[in-house]
């Protein structure tokens, strides 16, 4: 927890939306008088019926409602209300995968027209308020039209990251009973094509409820269209009206479902609602990023993840911003691409994940320093802990020491930033998320639930509700209660470890459950294990994380084969491919070790703590192994580990 402190820049302390004094006053009001604070903040939005009830929440029993008698429409707040003043302003600059492909600039007026058309096409296909619509789309403008069209007509979108496999897609379609899937012929990433429509075709035999597939033509690839089921977006749109009324939505109506990994079982469909979510992220976008009218804002996150939902799409649009949306990856055609895009669009605020920063840092400074980056005012990170070395590089090389960094800690379930510096108010410490956002009451507890005061390290809980909090897990409210509010009864448990330093600043240390964070993507060890044991030759598998220079955490799998099956390098390769096919490339194991036996307690529970230590090459610190059914298993595993490369 030691290390440098970078004091707030003087200019920022004077000019920022939130100065130190303002932060202190607003934070105090937000926790002492949440009704007053959030009633005021709700005025950021246009309401068809303004809310008179503000906060009605309890963590024991669990019941969370914000602005419950308010009526609004999220798409109207993101588009229509800006049209008078900003009709000709660019809402999105869209940058293609390769710089030689044509870019697009979409004004608010154009966005309105396209979203309306999209909404009318969805209605034509039978989509009604409350229906779930699955999106499996690349980072192309149409994904924003589709999400906003759902919001416009009150349908609930479920965006599935376009890197997931057909199997993973089918599971997510079935879980929320979607009858319609929106996809594209292909996606592009880093010069490669991703066969999205083919993946949907492969998924649908396992998702029999799907009646319609709406297909966006993107690369022009030759794909199969199934009569009666598959519809081209451009054909349907040609006949669609360019105006579509908004559906009035209760603040507590669901806006979207987003699947995320937990420590057990299959991914959970986290449900976010309209009013509280938009109010909170709109405030976060303005204050954490110090967004000012006219700024060009770029959040690099894919719309398949929460960071994309909140900060690539909804928050900037709610504030009438001009955003950048990029189809590709950080290092294609080369490691200068991010910085070239920043120069091309004169980006003012740039927000990305530590894994991208580490990868680009590894490519060398020249790729950065040959670009200008003079437009940058602020840098942000999210998704995983940032190591101080990467922070310093981001600060000194990318930002040339001019730009504050906001290291924002939050989760799919929290909807928006929870612990984060404010650039005009908070001294920065490389690696620390620092201070709570408005309305957030963090608390550290030990494993027995005892509250830890002062300088301490423990499990991070949040004591009271905030408007952007997830309301439930789709179709399984009990799982929501059990997962988040039962470990420490009456508190929201984040599953993150955290330290609080002598100044009261918070440092997130990473997950304390069986969830890995691989390149900023959440990955349940249980999901990877269940993919492995579905292979004929595997009898048992245990998955743990280990430190990885670029990805933050790598995936380390221990595999026990069926009796009579011989281990070989080819089989190891096959098993890695198998997981890739079952879940998607992001789940591909980095290291695989065959294990004739796994260390288990006498009651048969796998001792992951030991497996983690072995994966980390930390054999001296295995702790007590005397409770194992057969302690000699550990020696064999260590021997194998030392023999592998
Ligand atoms: C981790 C991403 C340290 C954390 C927005 C959390 C972070 C998980 C940070 C949620 C950060 C996110 N510093 N760790 N600034 N931001 N995390 O749901 O472990 O994809 O629980 O949401 O990422 O990942 P998710």
UniProtKB/TrEMBL annotation:
The residues listed in the UniProt record as binding Mg(2+), with positions renumbered to this chain, are 533, 535, 538
Please tell me whether the keyword Electron transport is annotated for this protein: no
Look at the named UniProt entry and state the broad enzyme category this protein falls under.
ligase
Q: Which GO terms describe its cellular component?
A: cytosol
Going by the UniProt record, its keywords in alphabetical order are: Acetylation, ATP-binding, Ligase, Magnesium, Metal-binding, Nucleotide-binding
Which residues are the signal sequence here? none
Pfam families in alphabetical order: ACAS_N, AMP-binding, AMP-binding_C
Q: Which residues form the Acetyl-coenzyme A synthetase N-terminal domain?
A: 23-78
The Gene Ontology biological process annotation of the record reads: acetyl-CoA biosynthetic process from acetate
Which reaction equation describes what this protein catalyses?
acetate + ATP + CoA = acetyl-CoA + AMP + diphosphate
Where, by residue number, does CoA bind?
189-192, 307, 331, 519, 580
Q: Which GO terms describe its molecular function?
A: acetate-CoA ligase activity; AMP binding; ATP binding; metal ion binding
Query: What EC number(s) has UniProt assigned to this enzyme?
Result: 6.2.1.1
Q: Where is the AMP-dependent synthetase/ligase domain?
A: 80-462
State the source organism's domain of life. Answer: Bacteria
Job description of the protein: Catalyzes the conversion of acetate into acetyl-CoA (AcCoA), an essential intermediate at the junction of anabolic and catabolic pathways. AcsA undergoes a two-step reaction. In the first half reaction, AcsA combines acetate with ATP to form acetyl-adenylate (AcAMP) intermediate. In the second half reaction, it can then transfer the acetyl group from AcAMP to the sulfhydryl group of CoA, forming the product AcCoA.
Q: What family name appears in the similarity comment?
A: Belongs to the ATP-dependent AMP-binding enzyme family.
Q: Which PANTHER family match?
A: ACETYL-COENZYME A SYNTHETASE (PTHR24095), ACETYL-COENZYME A SYNTHETASE 1 (PTHR24095:SF14)
Cross-referenced NCBIfam families, in alphabetical order?
A: Ac_CoA_lig_AcsA, PRK00174.1
Protein name (record)? Acetyl-coenzyme A synthetase
Q: Which gene encodes it?
A: acsA
């Amino acid at each position: 927890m030691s290390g440098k402190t970078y004091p707030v820049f003087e200019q920022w302390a004077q000019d920022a939306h939130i100065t130190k004094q303002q932060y202190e006053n607003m934070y105090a009001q937000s926790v002492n008088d949440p009704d007053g604070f959030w009633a005021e903040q709700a005025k950021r939005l246009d309401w068809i019926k303004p809310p008179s009830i503000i906060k009605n929440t309890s963590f024991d029993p669990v019941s969370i409602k914000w602005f419950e008698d308010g009526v609004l429409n999220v798409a109207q707040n993101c588009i229509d209300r800006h049209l008078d003043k900003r009709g000709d302003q660019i809402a999105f600059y869209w940058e293609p995968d390769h710089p030689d492909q044509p870019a697009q600039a979409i004004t608010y007026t154009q966005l309105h027209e396209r979203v309306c058309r999209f909404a009318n096409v969805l209605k034509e296909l039978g989509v009604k308020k409350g229906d779930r619509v699955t999106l499996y789309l690349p980072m192309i403008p149409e994904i924003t039209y589709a999400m906003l069209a759902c919001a416009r007509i009150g349908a609930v979108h479920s965006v599935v990251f376009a890197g997931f496999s057909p199997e993973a897609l089918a599971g997510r379609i079935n879980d929320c009973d979607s009858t319609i899937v929106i996809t594209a012929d292909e996606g592009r990433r880093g010069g490669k094509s991703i066969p999205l429509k083919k993946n949907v075709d492969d998924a649908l035999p396992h998702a029999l409820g799907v009646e319609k597939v709406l297909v966006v033509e993107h690369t022009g690839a030759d794909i199969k269209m199934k009569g009666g089921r598959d519809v081209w977006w451009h054909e349907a749109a040609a006949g669609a009206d360019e105006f579509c009324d908004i559906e009035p939505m209760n603040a507590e109506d669901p806006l979207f479902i987003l699947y995320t990994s937990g420590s057990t079982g299959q991914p959970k469909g986290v449900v976010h609602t309209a009013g509280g979510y938009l109010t909170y992220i709109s405030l976060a976008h303005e204050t954490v990023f110090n967004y000012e009218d006219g700024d060009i804002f770029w959040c690099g996150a894919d719309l398949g993840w929460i960071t994309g939902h909140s900060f690539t799409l909804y928050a900037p649009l709610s504030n009438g911003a001009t955003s950048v949306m990029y189809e590709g990856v950080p290092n294609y055609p080369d490691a200068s691409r991010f910085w070239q895009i920043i120069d091309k669009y004169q980006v003012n605020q740039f927000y990305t994940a530590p894994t991208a920063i580490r990868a680009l840092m590894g490519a060398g400074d020249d790729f950065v320093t040959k670009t200008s980056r003079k437009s940058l005012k602020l840098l942000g990170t999210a998704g995983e802990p940032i190591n101080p070395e990467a922070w310093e590089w981001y600060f000194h090389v990318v930002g040339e020491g001019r730009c504050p960094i906001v290291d924002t800690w939050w989760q799919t379930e929290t909807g928006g930033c929870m612990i984060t510096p404010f650039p005009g108010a908070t001294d920065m410490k490389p690696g620390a998320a620092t201070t709570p956002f408005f309305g957030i009451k963090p608390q550290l507890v030990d494993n027995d639930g005892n509250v830890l005061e002062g300088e301490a390290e423990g499990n991070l809980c949040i004591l009271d509700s905030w408007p952007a909090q997830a309301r439930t897990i789709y179709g399984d409210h009990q799982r929501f209660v059990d997962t988040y509010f039962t470990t420490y009864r009456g508190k929201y448990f984040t599953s993150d470890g955290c330290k609080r330093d002598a100044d009261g600043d918070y440092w997130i240390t990473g997950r304390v459950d069986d969830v890995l964070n691989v390149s900023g993507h959440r990955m349940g060890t249980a999901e990877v294990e269940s993919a492995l044991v579905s292979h004929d030759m595997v009898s048992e598998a245990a998955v743990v994380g280990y430190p990885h220079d670029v990805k933050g955490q790598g995936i380390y799998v221990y595999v026990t084969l069926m009796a009579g099956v011989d281990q070989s390098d080819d089989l190891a390769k096959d098993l890695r491919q198998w997981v890739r096919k079952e879940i998607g490339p992001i789940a591909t194991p980095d290291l695989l070790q065959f294990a004739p036996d796994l260390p288990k307690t006498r009651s048969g529970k796998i001792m992951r703590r030991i497996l983690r230590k072995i994966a980390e090459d930390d054999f001296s610190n295995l702790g007590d192994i005397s409770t194992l059914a057969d302690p000699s298993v550990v020696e064999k595993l260590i021997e194998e580990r030392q023999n592998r490369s």
